[in-house]
Amino acid sequence: MSTTETEHGEREAQLVDLAAFQDPETLLRLGELSRTAVQRTENGVADVFTGTVRLDKVDEEEAEAGTFEQLDEEELDEDERASLGLRPIIPETFLDAGVWRQRRAVWLNSAAFHATRSPVYLWRFIRTSAIGARVGARDAWSYLFATEYGELADKVRRAKAGAEHIADLRADRRKEAKARRREPVTVYALTGCTSYAAAVIALGETWGLILTAPALIPLFGLLYVLGHRELARRAPDGTFAFLDSTAAADHDGPVTDERITNALRDIKLLTAEQTIKPVGLATRDDLGNTTVAFKTPAGLVCKAIKNKAEAFAGALGLSLERIDLTQGETPNDVILWVAATVPFSEDAPVSPLVDADRWSIWDGVPFGSNRKGLRKTLQLLWSSMLFGGAQGYGKTSAMRVPAAAGALDPQCRMLLADFKGGADWEELENIAHRVIIGADPASVDEFIELVDELIEEMDTRFAKIRRMPKAERPDMRLTPAMAEAHGMPVLMFLIDEIQEAFGVVLARKDGLKEFAALVEKLARLIRRGRACGLIIVAAAQRPSAKSVPTDFRDVILKRYSVHTVDDTSSDMILGDGQAKRGHTAAGLGRIGVGILAEEAGSEKLQVDLITPQEFEVICARGRALRIEAGTLTGYAASGLLTVSGILAQMRAAFDEAGVEELGSTDIARLLHQQDPAADWGQRDGESDKQWSSRVGARLGREIEEALDGSGRSLDRVKVRTLAGTEGRGFRRTDLTLVLGA
């Protein structure tokens, strides 16, 4: 660019083509740079030859008038801030209401804690101040009279250095002590002490001792400081705590990031310089269990902590059962769960089936709770179940839970094979369609025949399902609608102590062949029968290759084992390799607690409690439901009594009273209301005792006559009468068991 002067003498700019002064190589390079620069702009793509941008023709019409509003830039949310590596301006702990609630609770707890210990603190203060007074007087005396020279004189005397040295030390001591007493600091201190004492005495004489007490605060404060210093000097760690700590014991205190870091350092997974990074805030559930999420430093992953879980729990001051480690989104993300108490240390909860009026097996079986307190519901329709373990640890009690669920479903047909031959399942006989009791050869043959019948029933059901329209059978599985419409109720086959049946078969001449055939039939029944509504619930006491064959066990998808003597026995029930994966029933040693192995994994459970007495009531309820629904069949229906006479009258009396227990005289009064001419009422001149004895004997006699030949009995028991007193009478459940209604 050059300039020229105008007519007024001003300089005027003039454009000069600098490209004319450039060599061809420089021009080519400038052209490439210009095209590259234009291509990177928002205006378009540069022309290949000249680098000029070709823009569409812009509409030159004037825009209508309007209002333009400048939009503010949106603030970054938490995720965007984290992705940009920005730290939060205000920590979460200052904004979280739960954290402030915890802080208030801690403050109130600390205030109450220290208030209750104030007498102890007062005594501790007085004792420390007394020590301070003694130590202060001792140190002041030692300084003013140079007592350290006396110690030197003793050393010289013991060394027998000569009397002249001792005399010199005594002279030096007198000289040093005199000099110290004349020091300005000493004079000022003594003057201050005497002035303070005189002022306190004057205040006491003028205002009294009570108003003088505040003036003594500096004195006691000084004495406490001297005593505190002396006690700290005596302590091995050089510290002295006046107040008791409000923190709970380490194993009961909160699991903080500092505590976790220290534990990981103790087991050599972290160095002294490394720490964990907490993720969010710790949470606590309704049971008091705590969940903490944290991120480990590079080089330490969740799997490494899991491998040393027992040592990690010990470093936290907890048992292994009280912690659980799971991996988060990345291997460095760890979620630690800590139980408030030792899992399963309390009594097992009562099963909800105890109070249920009825149940549907399609809704699953409420089975128990895991160590985190989470409820476990089993879906047995598609898997069947195997129970095992040592005798006396709750195997039969656990097996009672699915049996109770089936009993309370009137559309569930119960089949029972009790090879133990005891009384554990006698209540179930009142609702079971088929019953096999004992391990004699005839019972085992009947069991094999029943298995064949079930296979035939299974094939028949599949044939029915195949003939149905596809709209009714979307996945070739039985549904509640199909079961009701086509008469295919759910079949629950309970087999207790199945190893007894296998033992009888193996003892026969062709035992191995029959045993293999029976196992194959059972496996086929379990494998295919689950789709058509067949549930097998089996139990074995002595796990072995013959008592629980793998071909039989492996097709059962749900297995539960109580205490066993070793890992081998546990694996015979739960499956091969379960012990190596950390799931073993060996050494559990607690009744009602076992290991549940499922398709999704294994875990320790505490089974809900159903006592034999409660199971009896459940079975009576199930029988009544089946009679009402018309589904009581087979063995249970063959023993039904004709409800008439005294038994029908007693049932009507219970219905009218609406209670579960009636005394003999209560029943007599109700029977008198039904039929005044039947002579159940109290006669003129008859005492209460005579009337009670008469109607009690008559009830017993007529009940015995009504039950004659049935093999059943209805005895009087201790009950609570309508008057609220204890007496002899009858229970509705006993009458229901006898009548079957």
From TrEMBL:
<dbReference type="Pfam" id="PF01580">
    <property type="entry name" value="FtsK_SpoIIIE"/>
</dbReference>
<dbReference type="InterPro" id="IPR027417">
    <property type="entry name" value="P-loop_NTPase"/>
</dbReference>
<dbReference type="InterPro" id="IPR002543">
    <property type="entry name" value="FtsK_dom"/>
</dbReference>
<feature type="binding site">
    <location>
        <begin position="389"/>
        <end position="396"/>
    </location>
    <ligand>
        <name>ATP</name>
    </ligand>
</feature>
<protein>
    <submittedName>
        <fullName>FtsK/SpoIIIE family protein</fullName>
    </submittedName>
</protein>
<feature type="domain" description="FtsK">
    <location>
        <begin position="364"/>
        <end position="571"/>
    </location>
</feature>
<dbReference type="InterPro" id="IPR050206">
    <property type="entry name" value="FtsK/SpoIIIE/SftA"/>
</dbReference>
<dbReference type="GO" id="GO:0005524">
    <property type="term" value="F:ATP binding"/>
</dbReference>
<dbReference type="GO" id="GO:0003677">
    <property type="term" value="F:DNA binding"/>
</dbReference>
<keyword id="KW-0067">ATP-binding</keyword>
<keyword id="KW-0547">Nucleotide-binding</keyword>
